[in-house]
Specification:
alpha+beta, binds glutathione, Glutathione S-transferase Yfyf (Class Pi), Chain A, domain 2, 8 helices, Glutaredoxin
Length: 206
């Protein structure tokens, strides 16, 4: 079991910091959250880790971790229940596929969408919708969660990233119905709602 209260460095609107925050909230795992700007404080970061990104987890005994999924899996391996990783090997593999699709394909598009305007922004929106379609076959038919009827770490793959895109103006009515149901179910959880207080999935975003 972890002993000291770890420090977690985040940016408030970063989708992957939000992923980790929602996980820690669901887990009831106490940390010291601190805002950190990797651009402004990159040098300080560079001395400690080779990647210039948040979130970062510092345990206090010298262990420093980066990457939201690596941090989640570490805490999951050490912290008391509730267990939020599925036990079944196939479900765990499906969870990792969802994270891979999100972090490699979807998240860079969402970031580019937020920064673009005009024609380029519309193109990025189309690419996000195309990518989301490729994710649907990996979701359980028993829903509404990614893996059946129970919330798990799999539900922190796509949702925080896609909710950030909707917050940035992506029209939620363009999303496949299975994904909208998933997003709504996850957004109804207090851990996620507090991170996306203004997001609505029914009306077209501004
Ligand atoms: N795979 C990493 C990606 C983290 C990432 O890209 N974080 C972004 C913010 S959402 C970042 O720190 N970018 C550098 C910056 O904002 O200056 C994770 O899941 O934690």
């Amino acid at each position: 079991m972890l002993e000291a209260l770890p420090r977690v460095l985040i940016r408030s609107r970063c989708s992957l910091s939000r992923r980790l925050r929602a996980y820690l909230d669901e887990k009831g795992f106490a940390v010291r959250l601190e805002s950190f700007d990797p651009v402004r404080h990159g040098r300080e970061l560079g001395r400690r880790i080779p990647k210039n990104s948040v979130p970062i987890f510092e345990q206090g005994d010298g262990l420093v971790l980066w990457d939201s999924r690596i941090i989640i899996e570490y805490v999951e391996d050490h912290a008391p229940p509730p267990a939020l990783m599925p036990k079944d090997a196939e479900c765990r593999a499906r969870l990792r596929l969802l994270y891979d699709l999100t972090d490699v394909a979807l998240e860079p598009l969402v970031r580019a969408f937020a920064e673009a305007s005009g024609k380029k922004r519309r193109k990025k929106a189309d690419e996000i919708i195309e990518t989301v379609r490729t994710i649907v076959p990996h979701l359980s038919h028993d829903g509404p969660y990614a893996i059946g009827k129970r919330f798990s770490v799999a539900d922190l793959s796509v949702p925080p990233v896609l909710l950030t895109a909707i917050e940035d103006g992506l029209d939620p009515s363009r999303l496949p119905i299975r994904v909208r149901l998933w997003l709504q179910t996850v957004l109804d959880r207090p851990s996620m709602r507090k991170l996306f207080p203004k997001v609505r999935l029914t009306a077209r975003a501004a």
